[in-house]
Request: fold
Amino acid sequence: MKKKFALQIVAFVLVAGMLSGLYTYTDVFDEVENVIVRVTCLSCLKLDPKTELTFQFETATDEDQPGFVWDNITKGPIFLAFRADVCAACETMEPIVKDIFDVDFGITETFKKVVNYNNMNITFYHINIDHAKGEYREAFELYDKDNVKGVPMFTMITLGYNHGVIEPAYATAYGTLEGLTNSDLSIPINIQRKNILENIIENGMVLYNENKIGFNPK
Amino acid sequence: MKLQLKRLYSQFLFFLSANLGALGIKSGFCYPFFYCNACPAADAACPLRAIEVGVFKGNFNLKLIIYPFLILGIAGVITGRAFCGWACPIGLLQRGTEHSAKKVKKKRWLPSLEESEHEHQLRYIKYLILLIFVVITPILIEFTFTDICPVGILTGTIPTLILNPGKYVPSSYFFPAMFIFTLFIILILTIRRGWCRYFCPIGAIFALFNKISILHVEVDKEKCIHCNVCSKVCPMGINVPEMHRDPECILCGKCISICPQNIISYERR
Reply:
């Protein structure tokens, strides 16, 4: 009986001590909150949001466009691909994105490359929200126009005409794009996904060409 | 207040506490029971998800692996598997389906799994699920349990669809998970606590702590008259008179409430 009691006390002290140590000396609490609780992996939810692919000006948080967007928007449209570490839907979409832009990057890195797409420069960003910091991480909330808080998420940023002023405008798509794919079963699903992303990009390019002359960056 | 009524209140309170995200409260805790962080009102993380994120593709994040075990561990060392019986919302759901499962058990034409001689071996499935789908497949083939989790469908997908009508469409992950969810519903409607007994990976972690927990259920074997009423009411199908720190015991107290000799009780140490 005494042995059992001693074992229970040791186990309790060990577990409680390790848990306290984990809270005190690591950022596990923040990591779990930011990586798991506040962000939904859309494949875990098993759903894709239906969304309108129209370009809009107001960000989801009503804040200004981030600095890296202002820095690059004069060079051409910007495409942002957001993902998380553990997300089956991100794994599905990533090869399609890599194929479209002819880029390669590691899962965890915040990757930037200016790519030539149909004779136009597009600044491509890959942002893993589990690792990205500062304005790159904040951009995830900024462009989450439907308040989905889910990954994968794709944002095309271009220029648009807003009540007499040329401003950055963006369109966001979510998940594996099931909410947008047509139901033509003769077309393989990944081709449909690629077509949708290319369509967003091309619409963004048309808008950019129409509006770049009148654009006065900050 | 009667013990089972207290337990019902406790289960409801924990269910409410699991949904404080509806008030904007989000935390970095892991639930000490089975609940999905994809639930629109979730305020903490699923412990299984934390383990999966910690081991995914072999990029070991030690703190994320240890963390859920410590949260479950602190509950487990003190109360054993009591969180399954007194806190888990999926336990509450199965409490509601127990009546149906009892009716099924009475149908003589239906072979009862609960009375099968191999029933005890099936209880090891939950340990295999924990090991294979929460640890091994996320490392080796990037397949995670949460992608097909029936509890995720119940507490994440269905509430999201109800709360946002027309805003979401099923993705390709929906239909395999829905198939497993259908089996889950059939299981809990036909076998008392079928999910907890055979499949729950969190129950598998908790079960290990029953052997050393401070709180546990004890039977005074010398005074037992072997009427076996306790075993009949036990939702986990335990042979209660022979029980000593059984890994399956969820400390629900049904045997304590029903024992005519009052020789079953909660014991400390």
